[in-house]
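Quick one before lunch.
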Amino acid sequence: MSKSKPFNIQCPSCRMQQDVELYDAVNISTNPELKKLLMENHLNRVGCIGCEASFRVDMPLLYTDPQNNVMIHWIPETAELTKDQIIEDFDKSLEQLNELLPPDVVAPRVRLVLSRVELVELIFMIEANMNQRVVEYVKYSIYTRNAEKTDPEKFRLLLNVQDSTDEELCFVLQNVETQELGKGLRYGRSAYQSMCELYEEAPEEFVEMFPGPCISARNLLLEDLADA
Ligand SMILES: [Zn+2]
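Model of the zinc ion complex:
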């Protein structure tokens, strides 16, 4: 079920306090119109009653796609809540949840993302029936092979499903700080498909590299850097 709740927020432009209704859960089977809003960057967008500024309020959101049996939690990073903390807390609560599940129940795929762009990217991937772990593996090799231009501290590498073709997957670099989109990078789809075949034969290696619920080459690289 989709769910909205009242919140009291402050306009970032004029500082006026106001009551608004924001979604913290979106089920796209019951409310496909909310998915459309999310994809168009209109979900949880507020028009200030004081100064008419338009701004998006980011807060934890649960995106459920029952048809594809997937639940994606978007938990935005904030100054108080760092990426590492979010992932650690989430792992703990997921473990507790799995312990409560009866053994004969097939748990839905649970995913964690930390930004709206990653949520939208993942939705496109799921709907195009792409293998997220293989895509992140491809990103990992792009990051490591172009280390100078694709510093994971500065850039997020996103798959652009819509602009990808039968021949090529299209990736784009996003500056994490300014959100600006930069250079596009292309990757042969046949190489991706060969890797999907490898995955079918031996998924363990990919799962070991990206156990989830946060499946992200960038996070893996940042962890490696932190450990180095
Ligand atoms: Zn305002």
